[in-house]
């Protein structure tokens, strides 16, 4: 076993009641494939629906040798400030052809998009690695990718990218275009980062680019100190479109990187991580 270098970092999960067995499997594989060599702690956030009895079940599910810390999110189900009360949820945000319920799924998106950066424990970290309960490391990782990112001065790491469905991103291209029109610094950086947006008449024909951020490595300090990045985060949050249209944190993370980071210098696709999340993602470089 090797002690992690001088990095304040943690693997972070967000869980809900009933996911004990999934969490146990994900953590067991993480322990076998990575944490045995580099024993970073694991931070498990529980949403505010979990009871004390269910919390006990999560404790029992932790594999031996994993340094797990549990944190209850007492305000997880709170809507953004100013969000209208008493609306009919059947008209907003719920996609009837999916099994992802409104508003709990939207609260999850908002947590990873914004709220995670405002949690006091996370704000003390140098890096966090997001994992989901249905995310599994399938083979040994032969290097400390967190340390590697720190040494190379990187802000964001991911394992795969793709495109989201237009049905989940209504108005996102228009929002980004309008934001660039009113924010000169973001517009200049997006130009240098070769951000492409479809023409207005074609925007409903394209799905926005995304990172598969169910596994992501994030430099907390670099992002929370990046005023341009956090301004875009807040602008999205205040639009309520995570709730109205179910905008996901995966495409939002991509456009935030293009608008607020020196993309070629700060963003990297991570190699050598054989990873499963609703399909196998094995990036060999």
Task: Describe what this molecule looks like in 3D.
The protein has 285 residues and is an alpha/beta fold. It has a single domain (9-283), classed as Spore Coat Polysaccharide Biosynthesis Protein SpsA, Chain A (Alpha-Beta Complex), CATH 3.90.550.10. Helix content is 35%, strand content 16%. The strands form three sheets. It has a seven-stranded mixed β-sheet. A three-stranded antiparallel β-sheet has the order 5-11-12. A two-stranded antiparallel ribbon has the order 7-8. Strand 11 and strand 12 (280-283) form a beta hairpin. The longest helix has 16 residues, at 20-35. Residues 95-99 have low confidence and may be disordered.
Distinctive features:
285 residues, alpha/beta, Spore Coat Polysaccharide Biosynthesis Protein SpsA, Chain A, 7-stranded mixed sheet, 3-stranded antiparallel sheet, 11 helices, 35% helix
What topology emerges from the helices and strands here?
Layout: E1 9-15, H1 20-35, E2 42-46, H2 52-61, E3 68-72, H3 104-113, E4 127-130, E5 136-137, H4 145-151, E6 156-158, E7 161-163, H5 172-182, H6 184-192, E8 209-211, E9 216-219, H7 220-224, H8 227-239, H9 241-244, H10 249-260, H11 263-266, E10 267-269, E11 273-276, E12 280-283
Parallel strand pairs: 1-2, 1-4, 2-3, 6-10
Antiparallel strand pairs: 4-9, 5-11, 6-9, 7-8, 11-12
